[in-house]
Amino acid sequence: MKLLEDGVPLAELSIERIARTAGVGKATIYRRWSGKEELFVDVLRAAEPVDPELPGTSLRDDLVALLESLRRRGLARRASVILHNVHAQMKSSPKIWAAYRDTVVLPRRRLGLEVLRRGRENGELRADVDLELLHDIVVGPLLVRTLLRPDAGLPDGLAEQVVDTLLQGLRPAP
Amino acid sequence: MKLLEDGVPLAELSIERIARTAGVGKATIYRRWSGKEELFVDVLRAAEPVDPELPGTSLRDDLVALLESLRRRGLARRASVILHNVHAQMKSSPKIWAAYRDTVVLPRRRLGLEVLRRGRENGELRADVDLELLHDIVVGPLLVRTLLRPDAGLPDGLAEQVVDTLLQGLRPAP
């Protein structure tokens, strides 16, 4: 984090430099992380808000918790110059991006799919739509706002508003 | 397009080089485009599928036409190495990205908002949700698939499926 705060670009971070800054030997680092990519993803995870506890009370409550955590992550990324730069740079480093995808993005997606699967089994969700597509429908609006529209608002209550609108549908109530 | 096909990076494209390749003088280029950014965005627009004609028969049909055009643009971007590279490079050129946003992204967004506004006035859309948020809800799933999940499917019928699911809502039919 210190090196990132000092503005060292991702490409110039090496295990050697990290070990030197931390005042430890390289072997100490390698005992815990197999490479720079794995270490880096752990640093990034530590800087982001933790993953949500799902209340498990209803499909609606679990979806709100998932989207609220996306909203908070978006706010954190906007507030922290480090997080913002690191995410931007990560895209041009395929190995780090792959490590981040495997250890952060895909587990979150599996959790979301699990919530939807449970909701469908409980009869809280219509049964005729592909779960993968439902997942994109549920996370889409928040991902658009946090990743593609950096100037769009992320107000309190956005997660509830999106989930309730999606559950009820866009047609006027009959 | 010839220079992009030859793999010339965006940063090395200059009006001078474009004029030389086209066998014309620089003045000929400047008569039509005020700079490299404007020319480039026109090239990009010419390479992408044209914007959709809206049928205007119903909110549903207009939304399907809008999402179908997003789907086709996503397919075109995946099929064309040039389009793919150019979009990736564009992100690191703030001036070109701003020109693309102003002349391509924002007009499309205005068109989408206009469709939603008309639908709300006609009573085809619930009246209690912010139009900006509704727009993110409608385009979110397609943007997630085309821009953030390059391996996700973009099958025929996806636009209809998304629009019908959103209009009806995720709850099971009563």
TrEMBL record, chains A, B:
Q: Pfam families, per this entry?
A: TetR_C_11 (PF16859), TetR_N (PF00440)
The record's Gene3D superfamilies line, in alphabetical order, gives:
Homeodomain-like, Tetracycline Repressor, domain 2
Name the DNA-binding segment ranges.
Answer: 14-33
Which UniProt keywords are given for this protein, alphabetically ordered? DNA-binding, Transcription, Transcription regulation
Q: Which residues are in the HTH tetR-type domain? A: 1-51
The protein depicted here goes by the name TetR/AcrR family transcriptional regulator
| Organism, as annotated | Streptomyces prasinus
